[in-house]
Automatic annotation (TrEMBL):
This is LacI family transcriptional regulator. The keyword Cytoplasm does not apply. The lineage of its organism: Bacteria, Pseudomonadati, Bacteroidota, Chitinophagia, Chitinophagales. Keywords: DNA-binding, Transcription, Transcription regulation. Gene3D superfamilies: 3.40.50.2300, lambda repressor-like DNA-binding domains (1.10.260.40).
Length: 331
């Protein structure tokens, strides 16, 4: 079955495409009789408007780009739900790109956006990103950019995140209250500002007894954590700064015969729905992922609709919540 275009519909009606377009949109410039004639023919021919064609005429793509470092983390899947909720109401499509924690991959994706492929960009930085010069090119081309979760402090753009220093402080304080004496902070990167803030909060709560273990390679997580737990002065409290490190800690403890929480207590930054089903249930710092995504998208569309990209005054800080469970229970 052939697809009926606006030009084909206009030819069938012996009217100009412009007149037919205005009639379909209910323009007051077109008489009621002509509008009814056009609508009747559109129904009979099963005409469906092409949103992409109209977008091109308006020099917009009706699409936003979302750049994520990974999708293995439940946080990002919940964030996408929040973004989609806003984009869908606005009639926009969402293109999702993965940087796979690579700065160069991230820069290549951003370069692709410069062609006008998207009307705005939401980005959570990769673990390797040491500067954001590649993102300046987007704002120079008047393409609004909003950072979420993994943000950059230097750029004059909107940042939607949670108070990571306060969250790190709360996690470490909780372990100290549970009786821990030696804390180990597990990190996937030493570049990310978000991780540095969480570590700073941890060390503020536990000065002198909180050490850092940076594990950049996903395939080395279990081995490196196992090595740390096998030491004579092993930690008795672990803060996993990302969800995957929480899983790896459980695996390492099982392989060494260590009991959680009697031998080691564990807190993980995680929005994992199954945290309460683990044995023991996992104490988590839960970020407001859906709200972060929804807020970031709302701010981005404000920039798109108003035609400006200086959105730094729209930055938001949304609190996280510590949820105590079995992995940090007192003896």
């Amino acid at each position: 079955m052939r697809t009926i275009t606006l030009k084909m519909l206009a030819a069938e009606l012996r009217l100009s495409p412009g007149t037919v377009s205005k009639a379909l949109k209910g323009s007051h410039e077109i008489s009621e009789a002509t509008r009814e004639k056009v609508m009747d023919m559109a129904r009979r021919l099963d005409y469906v408007p092409n949103p992409y064609a109209s977008s091109l005429r308006r020099r917009t793509s009706k699409t936003i780009g979302v750049v994520l470092p990974a999708m293995a983390d439940s946080f990002f899947s919940m964030t996408i739900e929040g973004i989609e909720a806003v984009a869908g109401d606005k009639g926009y499509h969402v293109l999702i790109y993965l940087s796979h924690e690579s700065y160069y991959k991230e820069a290549a994706i951003v370069k692709d956006f410069q062609s006008g492929r998207v009307d705005g960009v939401l980005i959570s930085l990769s673990g390797e990103t040491w500067n954001t010069d590649h993102l300046h090119t987007l704002t120079d081309k008047n393409i609004p950019v909003v950072y979420f979760d993994r943000v950059c402090e230097e750029n004059d753009v909107a940042r939607i995140a949670t108070d990571d220093m306060e969250a790190g402080f709360a996690a470490a304080s909780h372990l100290l209250e549970a009786g821990c004496k030696r804390l180990l902070f597990l990190s996937p990167s030493d570049n990310l500002a978000i991780i540095k803030r969480r570590l700073a909060g941890c060390r503020k709560a536990a000065p002198g007894i909180a050490s850092l273990l940076c594990i950049g390679d996903l395939h080395q997580q279990h081995l490196r954590i196992r090595e740390a737990l096998a030491m004579p002065d092993r930690p008795d409290g672990i803060i996993a700064s990302v969800e995957s490190l929480g899983y790896a800690t459980y695996q390492a403890c099982t392989s060494l015969g260590l009991e959680i929480p009697s031998d080691v207590k564990v807190v993980a930054f995680s929005n994992m729905p199954t945290a309460s089903l683990l044995h023991p249930s996992l104490t988590t710092v839960e970020q407001p992922a859906f709200e972060i995504g929804k807020t970031a998208a709302t701010v981005l569309f404000k920039g798109i609709e108003k035609g400006y990209n200086h959105l730094s005054e729209e930055s938001r800080m949304i609190p996280s919540v510590l949820v105590p469970r079995g992995s940090t229970a007192k003896a």
